[in-house]
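Researcher: Please generate the 3D structure of the following complex. Treat every line as part of one assembly.
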Amino acid sequence: MNRLNPFYCIVVLVLSATVAFGDTEGTTGETDTPKLSLQSAVMCESIQGYSPVNSSVIFSISIGKVACFSFFNPVPDKTFVEHRWYHRDKLSTTKKLSVNPPKWATYSSIQLREADKGPWRVDIIDDSGHKLETLRFSITD
Amino acid sequence: MYEFFSVSSVFRWQDVVDILLNSYILFRLYVLFRGTNVLRVIAGIALLWVFQRAAVSVGLIVTSWAMQGIIAGAALIIIIVFRNEIRNVLQAPNLKAILWGVPQKSVIAPVDSIIEGVYELAKNKVGALIVLPGNEGLKDHIQEGVWWDGKITREMLMSIFWPDNPVHDGAAIIKGDRVTQVGTILPLSERVDLPSYYGTRHRAAAGLAEKSDAMVIVVSEERGEVMVAMGDQLLEIKDNIDLKTLIDEHLDISPPHDGPAKKENPEFLIAGLICVVCVCAVWFSFSRGLEALVTMDIPVEYMNRSSTMEIFDTSVNNVRLHLSGSGALIKNIHQDQIKFRLDLKDAVVGINRFAVTQENVSLPPGIFLRKMEPLVIEVILDVPVVKELPIQVDWIGKMGKSLILEDVELSPNSAKVVGGSRVLEGVTTLYTEKILLDTLTKTGQTVVNLALYPANLKLASGSSNTVVIKYKVKNRS
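Model: Done. Output below.
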């Protein structure tokens, strides 16, 4: 939020999912320390029941918002990730999301407005700055 | 004084050549036409031109307009009225005679023989009419007689005008040392003030003298008198000394001790100087007379750029120069005569701002810079690098509400581009041309080109500009 341009009126809805998926067997007895792994990431219209709804690569501005869903498994330690939203290569907003063991799903979303039409991407970055995934999509009429 | 130095500093070599060439042409016209009425008319026209310029400078509109009209028609008038004189000059034996030679009376008339012949005729009361042409042609005034071409001697003149000779009634034309024609009919004078005892011979002499610059010698048949017709005058000649003096003056024959070259040299020198002064005056009148302004857009030329850098962008491609100078110079100025150069010797990678000065502008002499726009030019220089960038589809339009574009696969999904290192720092994605969603109803594929932005990016060799896009469409659940 600290990178949000004052002229840019995107409302970022952050719903850091606080729901652990109940499976506590994520911590294994392996000797090697497991690393944070991004199991899946998609752009979707909304989140329902901790799952992405209508994942797609284009979103009509009429739906009002778009979300980036990411699921990490395993999550060895409590950490955080960033969703960096870019509109035509220009950073629009960055959202820091906490991620907890043993596996974690989280998402960020933005409200859409007329000026947001065009190509977008979301970079998912771990706490050490490594890019885990890039999701590309477009906002259209 | 300042004005003089400012003028001398802007003298081009072309101006010097221009002045000298026209001075020489003027001088040659003088040499070729001296002694004829052409020169006097030209002098009159030149005077009219001076008056016309003066009238313009003081704002006499009608006067200057009228004089301008007369001067405009003068060239035509000169050619028509003085066609004979012009023809005589142009009929010179060779080009050298026109361009360089001085018309000489190469063959001097045997004056003594003429005088002896004339007085022998007078003594015997034999009527005679002898024409010594001047510089003007006689063809339009006389009716040609019999071509004779005989060398002048006293006896020859006596025989021509001897009463029993069939051609004795006409006039004899003398050119150089020869009688060229005899039996020539001269125009009669229409003057009413001539004495009644003057006969046809006197009237013919007066008639030709009035119409040309010829000298006509008349020998009276009745009284044995000798008379000379020149211009409007009919002079009675008392003795042979008077006649010799008149003939010498008419034929421009100088005494032996004062040769033609010695006499002509100062005359030509003065004439030459006058020609140079006149042409200089005209040149200054043209080049300094009227101040004119012009605005020109000149392309910027960049010099001394480092070979490792390239110009990626500039704030302007042309500079607008407001120039002034004389009307004649401004009228003839061409864009390629003006240069605007920017030295990139000290330029660095990134944005370089150059304040433009008069030193950047190269102008032909006589043209002055009044103003420049803009005063600062930005030049962006950069080191070209190659970067591989992912490709993203730029979708536009509206897809059917019941459809979802589930997935897209690009081939290739990246491309290498060449651009400035600073420019490419901020470029992380290449986009395709816009693809319309409205027509997409089912899974398929399409081919589009890349839309490189910024425009100064170029595809690296080996990278394709076309991208195959496979898309997967599904129904909304």
